[in-house]
Amino acid sequence: MNRETVTGGEAASLAIALPFDELATSPPDDTIQLDSCPQFQWILVRTRRSVYDVIVLSGEAGEVMIRGGSFFPEFQLATIVGSTFGGSAVRLGSICAGCHLELHVDGRSFVTSRIENVSLGFPHPAFPLPAPAL
Question: Where are the domains of the chain?
């Protein structure tokens, strides 16, 4: 076993690898997979600093309409990348309590504050479901 020494003003650091699911501080029941959501599914995301309305347009592609926080006072088209614990690991296509939500709007990347709660709502009234075919 090799020992490394720290010289000068360098500080030693210790990296601990954990499975992504163990990094979130909330139970896994607080996770929504976008690809399991129907079109126009309303998702309410409450972070430490904001509340967001998310309307799923295409769960498989991550396409949504988002409103909330200081950046999105009106609904805007966005692509949800997934949830991140704050590093480079991303749980693609998911919204996980205890993590941050990463999304793209107009070619810009946004990362929310930590998600405290995520819940499914009825299809949003601004985006009504199509009438069933008779």
Answer: 20-121
